[in-house]
Write a structure and sequence with these properties.
With 509 residues, the chain is an alpha+beta fold. Among the domains are: 175 residues, no CATH class; 75 residues. The chain is built from 17 helices and 21 strands. It has a seven-stranded antiparallel β-sheet with strand order 7-6-5-11-10-9-8. Strand 6 and strand 7 form a beta hairpin. It starts with a strand and ends in a 12-residue tail after the last helix. The C terminus is likely disordered.
Length: 509
């Protein structure tokens, strides 16, 4: 049995401080003089909660242990109720190596093995681990580590008394992988384009708002600076100048955020794995085995569609939305030109292909979409009718809001009709659907574990149907396309029943 790295205690304390900082500032700085019972007792609860958490962090380090054999990890944890879990290597779907600024200060990293299991133990996480031990663990579960991160030669020289096991790991790690291919690295121009397309510059709004909430109570009474404020708003040129400065600062912040997230971005692959690397300050290295990919998704928001960009995501059985990740780690570069996205998909996964010529919905489907009642609009309109809010000093503005919402609903349904396309080939399913935000879903027949089609009363009248597929994921990945012809739904069902023809089907895929 092994304990986790001792600096795990310091890292968890660092996480505790980071997560508690805003609440602490609110209770002890912003509202430090407040006699309101919620803030008064909140300070005691906050201190007690932090102290209990600190005790738990220290004690749990002595209790939590792990070990491994040739095929499984065994994890033990729990202070009062002992809990032991056994996770086979075969259940590991994705591997993420995340190196934050904290890890860099101590020459360490973190490692997460994401599995196809559901529940509290759906991932094996080493919050703090040495680079040598991370390489050993990756080698243990047969993940090719040589390109995910190479150890610094200076760090290797400092390890003067390595064990024979560590030396073997280093030799395996430094092997040159002959079949490794780099598919995409964004240029500085790509990153600049991404900073505007992602609207990262709008991050200045919550930043300024948050700073004002903190600093506002510390400022002098408004009467002391009210005269200066009115002088500013009465000066047209000063307002223009301040606005320009604000826009420039916002753009700079957006560019910095984008470069810090997507700097050093690289998408590469070997014969068996796909690798994604990104980040300047916080580095993330993601690896997924090709045969465990359940499907692909291309997403286009309205703004990305205007610029001809798209985001490609890899669908796997594991849950990759870890709370510490700002961006989903299984996402390819989110600002790819649409044609480059198609090309990249086929390069990474030659088994998949994109058919640009697809079937479109019939005109009857458009009538169906427009006639279907919008319960969201009905509920919102009922609320507006009951409360009749006054907006911009206009008493009758509530019905204008209802009309605007109705127009948005209609426009979204018309766009959904225009965007919806579908196609089934010999062993592959692909379709586009969605209104303001549209998505393409591609999967192989052997990856689909369940299909269904259904008809509402209106759909039965128009001889239409909705079809759904289910893929392995956490939670299960369900994709639905609405208002397709009934004949296609029946053809789709017959197509799925022929899945025994897929001789390449793998039960563990």
């Amino acid at each position: 049995m092994m304990r986790y790295h001792p600096l795990t205690i310091l890292y968890r304390i660092y996480q505790l401080i980071k997560n508690s900082l805003i609440l602490g500032i609110l209770l002890f700085v912003v509202k430090r003089n407040s006699d309101f019972w919620l803030f008064e007792y909140g300070r005691y609860l906050f201190v007690a909660g932090v102290l209990l958490r600190l005790i738990y962090i220290v004690v749990s380090w002595f209790v939590e242990t792990y070990e491994w054999d040739d095929r499984t990890f065994q994890l033990k944890k729990g202070l009062f109720v002992k809990h032991t879990s056994t996770i086979p290597f075969s259940k590991i779907q994705n591997v993420t190596r995340h190196t934050t600024l904290f890890h860099k200060l101590f020459g360490l990293t973190s490692l997460t093995f994401e599995t196809a299991m559901d529940g509290d133990d759906d991932a094996i996480t080493f919050q703090v681990v040495s680079n040598q031990h991370a390489a050993f663990l990756l080698e243990l579960v047969n993940i090719e580590e040589s390109h995910m991160s190479k150890l610094d030669e200076k760090e290797s020289e400092k390890e003067s008394e390595q064990t024979q096991q560590e030396q073997e790991v280093n030799e395996a790690e430094n092997k040159v992988e002959t079949d490794l291919v780099t598919h995409f690295e964004p240029t500085n121009l790509d990153l600049l384009k991404a900073s505007f397309t992602s609207l990262s510059f709008l991050a200045i709004i919550p930043i300024v708002t948050g700073l004002y909430d903190i600093i506002g109570p510390l400022l002098p009474d408004s009467d002391h600076y009210q005269g200066v404020f009115y002088q500013i708003i009465n000066s047209r040129w000063l307002i223009i100048m301040l606005s320009v400065v604000g826009v420039v600062i916002a753009i700079i912040i957006g560019i910095i955020r984008t470069f810090s997230r997507y700097g050093k971005y690289r998408i590469s692959s070997s014969a068996t794995h796909i690798y994604i690397e990104r980040g300047l300050l916080d580095e993330t290295h993601f690896a997924i085995e090709k045969q465990k990919i359940q499907g692909l998704e291309i997403e286009q928001t309205l703004l990305k569609r205007i610029f001809g960009l798209a985001e490609v995501k890899l669908i796997s059985s594991a849950n990759t939305q870890a709370e510490d990740y700002v961006v989903s780690v299984n996402s390819l570069y989110p600002f790819l030109p649409i044609n480059r996205a198609y090309q990249l998909m086929e390069e990474l996964l030659p088994d998949y292909y994109v058919e640009e010529s697809m079937n479109r919905l019939t005109k009857i489907s458009l009538y169906m979409k427009l006639l279907k009642p919008s319960w969201f609009w009905i509920v919102v309109t009922a609320g507006l009718f009951y409360f009749k809010p006054t907006i911009f000093q206009i008493d009758a503005a509530w019905w204008l809001l209802s009309l605007l919402l109705l127009l948005i609903v209609i426009m979204n349904r018309i766009l959904d009709y225009l965007h919806t396309k579908y196609l089934i080939s010999e062993d592959q399913l692909q379709w586009w659907h969605g209104g303001l935000t549209s998505r393409m879903f591609i999967t192989k027949r052997r990856r689909v574990i369940e299909i269904s089609y259904s008809q509402s009363i209106l759909q039965r009248f128009f001889k239409l149907a909705s079809i759904s597929t289910m893929n392995r994921s956490i939670p299960a990945r369900i994709e639905t396309i609405n208002d397709v012809p009934l004949d296609f739904a029946k053809t789709f069902q017959h197509w799925y029943l022929q899945r025994q023809k897929d001789t390449t089907y793998q039960q563990n895929g």
